[in-house]
Amino acid sequence: PNITHQIMESSSLRRENCRAKGGSPGFKVAILGAAGGIGQPLSLLMKMNPLVSVLHLYDVVNTPGVTSDISHMDTSAVVRGFLGQPQLEDALTGMDLVIIPAGVPRKPGMTRDDLFNINAGIVKTLSQGIAKCCPKAIVNVISNPVNSTVPIAAEIFKKAGTYDPSRLLGVTMLDVVRANTFVAEVLGLDPKEVNVPVVGGHAGVTILPLLSQIKPPINFTPKETEYLTSRIQNGGTEVVEAKAGTGSATLSMAYAAVKFADACLRGLRGDAGVIECAFISSQVTELPFFASRVRLGRNGIEEIYPLGPLNEYERAGLEMAKKELAGSIEKGVSFARK
Ligand code: NAD
Ligand code: LMR
């Protein structure tokens, strides 16, 4: 095993040095919660991403097995595993992007907020590690309740003096992925041709699809609008119920997380016109955090777009969303300040 380890380490170093000299694009990415239901397919898909040169897989259980397995894939990213809190700092040092799918998922009958008591503490600890070891990294928070865990991370970074609001993003991509899929189904289109902005937050009525701004432009009937809005808002619950106690969305989430992480990396590389929805620090409404369309660039979020014209149905939805969001944001902030 020692010889195998030595060969693996020297080959990773050779590959890293080679990349550094050639100046070819390649970013260092850590996944925290890498052995979980989302973490495993997410790790697999990130290992396939040509923009990733180094992939660190961290979890409190099972990372040696997941790392060994994924490291056999013949794609160029160098994979390293880290197990348990004592290895968190090594997992984070030098990272450009940190993706956080760590935490417990819902069971039928639960709301995302029911996960707060366990997941708030997990996100707090991981954020403290990020503030210490890679304060300039872009951070993608997947752990629920996103409407509270993003404010928690922000407060922890503020306390550490490292907070940069343009580098902290709550992942709401799955809502957009679902919206595109469900709308395409109704219209008989290829989902690739559809783009629905989804704003607000990531729980129940805070998930606000702006069907009036869909591309290509389409006029839905009130019945279609009602059906689609409700299906998009309840997409997570639909999966939780179908999984019947074994967890929540993992595979579609890993797909959405990689779609979003890839957009962040293309932004970091300097690509133009990278625009996605995310839950971020915002002045688009009176709330301190809100999901909306953002342009991603070398410094993370480079532009936050206003909501644009809303119809009457969406204006009513916005009021409901803001009411619930205000409480969830406040809950996260006061937890982190305690
Ligand atoms: P899971 O239980 O299958 O996996 C979670 C992983 O986190 C486990 O491997 C666990 O060991 C690990 N973990 C626990 N504590 C940790 C810590 N302190 N440090 C590092 N890792 C730790 O759950 P899952 O299905 O992968 O879901 C993970 C989270 O993602 C849940 O909170 C879920 O609600 C959320 N989620 C969010 C979205 C979204 O759209 N943002 C979508 C789906 C799921
Ligand atoms: C989702 O939208 O699928 C996730 O937030 C998981 C959940 O609890 O619904």
Automatic annotation (TrEMBL):
It holds the Pfam family Ldh_1_C. The keyword Oxidoreductase applies. Gene3D superfamilies: Lactate dehydrogenase/glycoside hydrolase, family 4, C-terminal, NAD(P)-binding Rossmann-like Domain. NAD(+) binds at G33, A34, A35, G36, G37, I38, G39, D59, N119, I142, S143, N144, M253. Substrate binds at R106, R112, N144, R178. GO terms for cellular component: chloroplast; peroxisome. It is found in: Peroxisome. Residues 172-335 form the Lactate/malate dehydrogenase C-terminal domain. Residues 28-170 form the Lactate/malate dehydrogenase N-terminal domain. One of its GO terms (molecular function) is L-malate dehydrogenase (NAD+) activity. Keywords: Glyoxylate bypass, NAD, Oxidoreductase, Peroxisome, Tricarboxylic acid cycle. SUPFAM superfamilies: LDH C-terminal domain-like (SSF56327), NAD(P)-binding Rossmann-fold domains (SSF51735). One of its GO terms (biological process) is tricarboxylic acid cycle. Its EC number is 1.1.1.37. It catalyses: (S)-malate + NAD(+) = oxaloacetate + NADH + H(+). The active site is at H202. Homodimer. Belongs to the LDH/MDH superfamily. MDH type 1 family. PANTHER family: MALATE AND LACTATE DEHYDROGENASE (PTHR11540), MALATE DEHYDROGENASE 1, PEROXISOMAL (PTHR11540:SF71). This is Malate dehydrogenase. It comes from Lithospermum erythrorhizon (Purple gromwell).
